[in-house]
Design a protein that fits this description.
This protein is mostly beta strands. The protein is built from one helix and eleven strands, in the order αβββββββββββ. Strands 1, 3, 4, 6, 9 and 11 form a six-stranded antiparallel β-sheet that branches. It has a five-stranded antiparallel β-sheet with strand order 2-5-10-7-8, with no helix packed on it. A hairpin with a 2-residue loop joins strand 7 and strand 8. The chain is globular. About 12% of the residues have low confidence.
């Protein structure tokens, strides 16, 4: 009794089905395209190494590297130079957040001041499509001469959104000068 014939017929049937799948491309149709991955740093110039490329900067924003006041990383950083005059200045950028992704913004700030009373500050905000804009951090003149890291997040949504990070400095004349330095503003998707 030969039991090889049913097995041979089964193998032939499976082989024919496999060839049919290869010829048509797949066994199922109508699958949606995969969403873009929610990974990685998405800003083209997070450390200001290329000046203000990718940023909108007010006229008093200076980007430089100074050996006596080094950058957090790399050689450049943005500074809201303290002049002891009443003024405000803005640095901002906008990125696209794909659907179902969370955006985490990390940045470093250092403060150099001669001020003795609260009057100079740096407000940091994150405005996300569909969420009212708000100030996430209000950093005062006494923030410290060492680099400090801060973190803010957009949360997730089922639709693509835009997110704008903004740094608004305000200085009041007569109380001393304050310079806020900003560096390594990373925009990471997860």
């Amino acid at each position: 009794m030969d039991t090889g014939e049913p097995m041979k017929a089964f193998v032939t049937t499976v082989s024919a089905a496999a060839l049919l799948l290869l010829a048509t491309g797949s066994a199922s149709h109508g699958q949606p395209a995969a969403d873009p991955p929610c990974t990685g740093q998405i800003h083209p110039n997070p450390g200001f190494e290329r000046g203000t490329t990718g940023w909108t900067a007010g006229p008093r924003i200076v980007v430089f590297g100074d050996a006596t006041r080094p950058a957090h990383a790399g050689r450049a950083y943005a500074t809201f130079a303290g002049l002891d005059v009443t003024r405000a200045d803005l640095l901002r950028t906008t990125v696209t957040v794909p659907a179902n992704c969370d955006l985490t913004v990390r940045f470093w700030v250092r403060t150099t001041t001669t001020e003795t009373s609260r009057g100079d500050y740096l407000n940091v905000g994150l405005a996300v499509t569909g969420i009212p804009p708000k100030t996430r951090f209000s950093l005062a003149f006494d923030g410290g001469a060492q680099w400090r890291q801060y973190v803010m997040s957009s949360g997730t949504a089922t639709t693509e959104r835009t997110a704008t990070a903004s740094f608004l400095s305000s200085e009041t004349a007569g109380n001393g000068a304050t310079a806020f330095d900003v560096d390594d503003v990373s925009f990471t998707l997860s």
